[in-house]
Structure formats: structure tokens, C-alpha cells
Amino acid sequence: MPRDFTTGINWGREFKSSFAAALWMCLLTCPMVAFKINAAENTIDYRWNYLIYVAAGTFILSGVWRFMLARRDYIRQSKAEAEFEGPAPDAPRGPAKTWVDVVMSSKYRNQGIGVGLLVLASLPLWASPYTINILITALIYISLGLGLNIVVGVSGLLNLGYVAFYAIGAYTYALLNHYFGLGFWVCLPLGALASTLMGLMLGFPVLRLRGDYLAIVTLGFGEIVRLVLVNMGDITMGPRGISNISPPSLFGLDLNKVVKPVLLEWVPTMSPNLDLNKAFLFFIMMAVVIITIVVVFRLENSRLGRAWLAMREDEIACQAMGIDRTRAKLTAFALGATWAGLAGVVFAAQVTFINPTSFTFMQSVMILSIVVLGGMGSIPGVIIGALVLILLPEYLRAFSDYRMLIFGALMVLMMVFRPGGLIQSVRETYVYKPLEGGAGGEAKK
Amino acid sequence: MDYFRDLLISGLTKGSIYALIALGYTMVYGIIALINFAHGEIYMIGAFTALIASMVLSQLGMAGWGLLLAVGAVAVVYAAMYGWTVEKIAYKPLRQASRLAPLISAIGMSIFLQNYVQLVQTPNFLTFPDLIPEISFLEPISHIVNKTQLAIWIITALIMVVLTCLIKFTRMGMAMRAVAQDKDMARLTGVNIDRVISTTFVMGSSLAAVGGLLIGCYMQQIDFYIGFLAGMKAFTAAVLGGIGSIPGAVLGALVLGFAESFAAGYLSSDYEDVVAFVLLIVILIVRPGGLLGSSQTQKV
Amino acid sequence: MTENVMNNPASIIETQDVSMIFGGLVALDEVNFRVEKGSITALIGPNGAGKTTFFNCLTGIYTPTRGRILFKAPQPEGGDQVVPLRGLSPDKVTTLGVARTFQNIRLFNNLTVLENVLIGCHCRMKAGLWGALFRDKNTMAEENAMAEYSYQLLEKYGLSRAVNDLAKNLPYGDQRRLEIVRALATRPSLLLLDEPAAGLNINETRELKDLIHLIRDRENLSILLIEHDMSLVMSISEKVYVMEYGRVIAQGGPLEIKNDPAVIKAYLGEE
Fold first, then answer.
1. In Å, how far is B297's CA from the nearest CA of chain C?
2. Which of A348, B114, B138, C159 could bond to A170 as cystine, CB 3.0-4.6 Å?
3. CB distance from C103 to chain B under 8 Å?
4. Which of C 130-169 lie inside 8 A of A, CB atoms?
């Protein structure tokens, strides 16, 4: 395919364009890059050599950029042409399959999932405590992403303050644990419930607002919650946060004291530094994620989920189908909040110390990016999005100074070259299976 | 009474700065319905460029009004260049994409620019010099209104007048209004959409740079993070006034400035930021289109 | 306030002095209108006459400024009851048995054809959050029955080969057809079609005519349509209303309308 658009390349022109881009970038970044303010002596350090790097970098990247854009537009156009001519007579009908669908529809699907789960479950026995900790974070973000996916991906309600519900869950556990000594298992449902209630409270007045207004109101709500947490110092300890939150207990056993010595004797590969509380949390989080996946999948393919999808696609037509819009919005919003609350409780148990800086607008952005980069409305997409966005910065620590820079640039690049996300959502297909006696049966794939 | 007056003055000053930033949000939103999250960073870059320019130019021996004007010019030109480039890289390739894609791209751009400035300059606070020369006739009332506040009001008011004229009376202004109404129709009547959008970004960025310069003079320190909260507040102001409406953005910014100032003065300075968002939620619930926005009925 | 009595017991829907005023603009001016049960009624008029506004008033998207809309809603236990529609939200109106299509097609583009129809079944289903999460027997039975029903509906109206295609990938004519099928899935007793022939070619319009007849006979419902295609209107409707500037200026059988001087004036202007 690329043959068709690479043949016409005018090298002279491309060279000129890249050269112009390099010059422009030099000019643009000149004051910021070449003139470094020396705050101590109140003078300027000149770094003209940096401009050479900028020029060289831009020259190359500009060429790559234009090549990629041309390729993207070419592919888009040839797709549009193919659609215009109509599908080939023997072309498979229905939406295109991604590799995830191929994997998921293969014969060995169940065995594959089983092996995968076993490998994951055995991780605490051989992986480093550091890895386990990161994986717990990744799992928390998967469930946050899946929760937000209900709101943004499935229902089309742009929520920029999702982190507020996460914070409410975390603080519910932290405060109840701190003041009343309540344990993890009691607080898990309570945290979820508190978030749901807040979701309903916010949802009632604001859900009739149009898309972008809803976005900004939820953003405002997120900030309000954070600022209240900062300023209600008497109860929430303000910016200092709450520490010594209890880890989850297993029938009242102290895992690190009682179970660990036994395990260490039996499993030589296990790291002696392993915090068994963390390992337990890892299992809890795996269970939460599996439950979340099942729940989201079932919701998406139910009467309620279809109402959400209809709402996302067209609000007017959705109402004309007899769907109570307010109710559908409210359930989606509250359910999303519930998941954030659950994840929040686990988060508090994981880090055992929380303060308001864990719940800034950047966190909301992070979760939204997981949903959008992964693929809106697609469960495997969100999972992969969460893994990429959480693990990538962890493993980019080698470039620790540059990782947020790279992260920002990647977000832009993804949107330009793959706006549908890593894995696009595919609708469930139905197969018609006639039954005996003329009665029909309809079964999902 | 004096206390009230002081709060009024600081509210007006804050509101003026918010207005300068909010205009960029509202203009861009009016034309391509995009929440330009990177706009706050342009404002921050404007402030940084102004600081660098002031240091370089004062070493070259400039001072007084000449220095202020030159610094302002450099900041405006560079912010405009950044705005233009950001639009070309992060938004233009996404014209046909879904509504969320440019938004995420904007957020990515915002993160990128923040970290870019942090890396090439410094993560710490920098002192911003007092660039505004003494205004002699202000001497008798300088305990009430200082020169920086006065300068902020006058400059903001002047810019509003110029901007209104530009949009009302120039060909480009007319083209902008046409694109805001109906992009396809404007294209059919021969308006160059890309140029209009670029111009909008350039204008919005220039205003933000003026805001950045003035906030530097007012607060006397800046860092790479100032764009974030200011951007969020300014966007709130734009929505408050009715996004897409230019007088709305100014009104919303002033309302927000006063509300914050009085909240800090009479309630508690801790809740200064909460007030902005509570105000936003309350106003949107009562008037879903914003103060001056029209709540149009959707066509079926 | 008088009670909700229809002027004519044979009507399925009646409006009594319905007016709609936007700001100072009178979009509908005391419209008195009725659809006979089981009939095909057409509403015609020049662009901007208020036809779609009238539809929007009937379906609850707008609340008329004044007047009454009475609808004979079928009751679950059989028989029917006259209900006032004014002030109800669109979803309530649909649930009572008024379904509609839109002038500019409003399908759920990124969902499959079958899902579009299944969403139409929404108001005839009961499953809630618990049913969706636990997939109990009743929910699954309902889900399967509805999928089955939707499939058969699609088959009946010639769309069964495309069940798993995304709605946006259908040819234009099929999209119009799907929108009608989707409206049928709400099991209406009154079907409102807003310019169903817009954008169709002559053949497709002929097919549409057959389809409308077929639907009326098979599904046992009444149809009200807005249309500009005069040959279609004249050949299928039993009664025609003509609107201009928000008022009904003529009503009667197709032939009467064709020769009505007021209608000719509205369409062709005066000498």
C-alpha cells in the first residue's frame, strides 16, 4: 500500500519543508532554550549550542511527521474509496476484527485465559515486591479506567472530575479506619456507597447540561473535593494527610508475621522482602478487576447498556425510543462513581498513607487518557491503555526527567495518528439459530 | 469601608487578568468548539519570555516605558508563535476526528509544554522584575491603587476595545464570526478556514502573553506551573459568561475576580479557589448557557 | 378545565387548539387536528409551515404553549384510555405508543442494525441493573425473546441480511427503512413519519409506499406522515391536512385537497 504515495515524493520540496521547520523551531525555542535564567546571580547563561540540537532534531522529525501524516491520509482515503465502491461480494460482513478478537474467539480462549491468570496469580512468588506494587497500581487504574469507560466511553458523558469519587472512596476508608478503627472489608462497600451517593448528588442537578459544560462542571467538582480535603484540616489532617491506614486482613491473621515464615520455607523463589499484605492486596485487586470486567461486559450487552450507547450516539433519538434519559445518565454516572470509590478504598489500603495531592486534576486526566488512548468503549482497550500508561512511566524512569515530556508528546501523537485508541471497540455480533418447530432462537456469538 | 474598597480593587485586577486569558479560550471555543487546555501554558510561556526578554534588554541598557513596550512586544510575538505552532501540530491534523481526540491532544500538549519549560528553564520560582515605571500623578493615592494595578486595568481595557473593533470592523473579524456560525457555509463563501483558525489562535495567544507579563509584574514571581490554575480559572470564567461570547468572557472573568476576592476577604483565604468552582456550578444550574450565552434549542 | 374528551370517538390522536410560540414567533396557531384510528393521514405544507414543530409537540420534544393533545393509549389489560400528552417527556410519549422517525435520519450510527432495533424494544422490556449484572433466568429469557423479535422484524421488512452491520454502513435507503423498523420495535399504535421519502429515488419511493401500506395492514396501527412528495401523499393517504404559517388551511381527502383554492394559493402563490 505505501508504494502509491511514496512514489511521488519530491525530495527537493521535502528537504525545503524540513529545513523551514527546523529554522522555525530554532526561532521559536530560542529564548526559552538558549537563554537560561540564572536565578542565583540574576543573569542569563547563553546556550547557543542547544539550538543546533533543536534544529537537527526538528529537521528529522519534521520529515517523519509529514511522511506519517501522508500515510495516514492515504490509508484513510483508500478506505473511503473502498467503501464508496461497496464491499466485495465475498467480503466478510460485520465490523472488522482486531487481533484481540482473533485471540478472544480462538478455540483455546478459555485455556489461554486460565494460563494467563495462573501466571498472574503466581507472581508474588517470584516477582520483586517493587513489581507487585506497580502491578497493584496498574490494576487499580484498570478498574478506574473501566469505571470511567462506563461514563465516557459507553454513555458519552465527559467527566473530568472522576478523581473526586476516587478520593471519596479513599478518604472514606482512611477516616473510618483512623477514627473508628473500621477494617478494610467493612469499608470496601461503604466507600463504594459513599461515592455512589456523591455521584447521585452531583448528577441530579448537572446532568441536564450539554457535553462540554458537563465536562467543566465535573472538573470544578473534582477541584472542590480536593480543596475541601485540603482545607478541612480538623478532620482530614489537611495537606499532611492520613497515615497508618490498616492493610486488609485475612480472617484477622497478621499475614507478615504468621503466614510469611511458612511460605518462605516452602517457596524458595519468593523474595524475603515481600510484603504479604501487598501480595494479598494484589489478589484482591485482581478479583476486583475480574469482577469489573464481567460487570462492564454484562452491562454493555444489556438493556441498560444499550440505553447508554443510544444516549451516546444520539440523545434525541434515544428519548424517542422510550428511554428515560435522566435516569440512564444518572445510573451511568453513579455506577462510574461506585467503581472509583471501590478503587479508592483499595488505593488507601495499598499506600497506607493518603493526602490530597494524590487526587489532583492530573489524575483525572490520567484516567481519561487511559480510556481514550486504550480505545473508547472497548474493555481490552482500556486494560491495555492502563498498562501502557502506568507501566510506561515506571519503566521510563531511566529518562526520569523527560518522562512527563515524552508522555505529553505521546498523547498528542496517539491522537493524531490513532485517534480511535489502541484497540477499537467492536460490537457484539448475533448469530441466528433456528430451533425446531419453527420457533427461533437468538444466541450471542 | 476601606477593606471593602481594597477587595474591590484586587478583585478588579484579578478579573482583568482572567479576562485576558479567558478571551483566548472563548475565541477558540467559539470557532472550533475545542477546550484548548494548552492555553494556560501559552500564558505561562508568555510570562517566561517576558522575564527573559526583560533581563536581556535591560542588560542592553533599556529602561522605563521603552523596556516595558519592548518586553511586551517580544512576549506577544513569541506567545503568538507558540500558539500558532501548537495549533498546527496538535489540532490541525485532528479537524475530522471525534470531539474527544482534540481534547486529549490538548491535554497532552499542555503536559508537554509545562515539562518543556521546567526542563529547559527551572522547576523553581523565579523573581519577576517590576517593569512598570512610576506613574507620578498616582502618588497621592498610591496607598489605595498602586501603579501595577492601574496599568493592568488600563492595558486590559485598551485591549478589549481594540479586540472588539477588530472583530466588529475588519474583514478577518467578519470571517471569524462567519466561521463560528457555520464552518461549511463559510468555506463555501470563500473564507479560508485554516487562516481564520490560525488567526484566532494567534490573537488568543497574544492576549494570554499580555496577561502573563502583567501577572509577572503583579505577583513578582513566576514558575512553570502558573498556567495550570490560571488556565482552569480563566476557562471557568469563559464558561461562566457563556462560552463563545466575547463580552461574556470579560463579564465572567470580572465576576470571578470579585467573587474570589470577596470570598478570600470575608470568608477565608483557604476557600478562595473553591468559590470559583462553586460559583460555576451554581450559575450553570440556574442558567445553563452561562451569563450572556444563549441556551439554544437543539434542532430536530 | 374540561375533562379529556375527544371530539370524535374514532380518533387515535386529537389536538385541540394547540399553539406553540417561540419568543414572539407563532409557530403553531390553534391547530385542530385528528388522525382516525387505522388510517394513513398526511400533513403537508410549504417549508417552514410548522409541520416538524407540530411533530415535536406531539412527541413531547416541545411542550405546546397552549392547547390539548389527546391520545388513545392502548392499555396492557386490553381496551384503551384517552390520555393527555401535553407536558409528558418524549420517552413517556413513546412508551404510551407514539413512535416517530426523523427528517434527517437519526440512527445510532456506531451500533449494529440489530442493536438499533433492540434499543427500540427498550420500553417494552423490564430488566434493570440487577438483571443486567446477574443475568437471571427472566432477564435472559426476555433478552432472547427480544433479540428474536427484533430479528423477525428485520426479516419481515427486508433487512435481515444486515443484522450485524453498523448502521452507518447501510445504504441510504436501508437507513430510512431501518429507522422505520426501529420505530416499529417500540410497538406503537401511532407511527409518525417525518419526510420518509426525503432523498429517495423514484424506485425507492415506490418501495416506501408499499412498505407504509404493509406496515399499516400488518402491524395494525395508524400512520401520520409529513411529506413533500405529492404523488406519494396523494396515492397513500386517506386524509390530508395542509398547513401554512402554523395554521391548518385545508383538510380532506386527497382529491379535495388537490383542487382546494387555498392550497393552490399556498403552494403556487397568487396571480
1. 10
2. A348
3. yes
4. 131-133, 135, 139, 143-144, 147-148, 151-152, 160, 162-166, 169
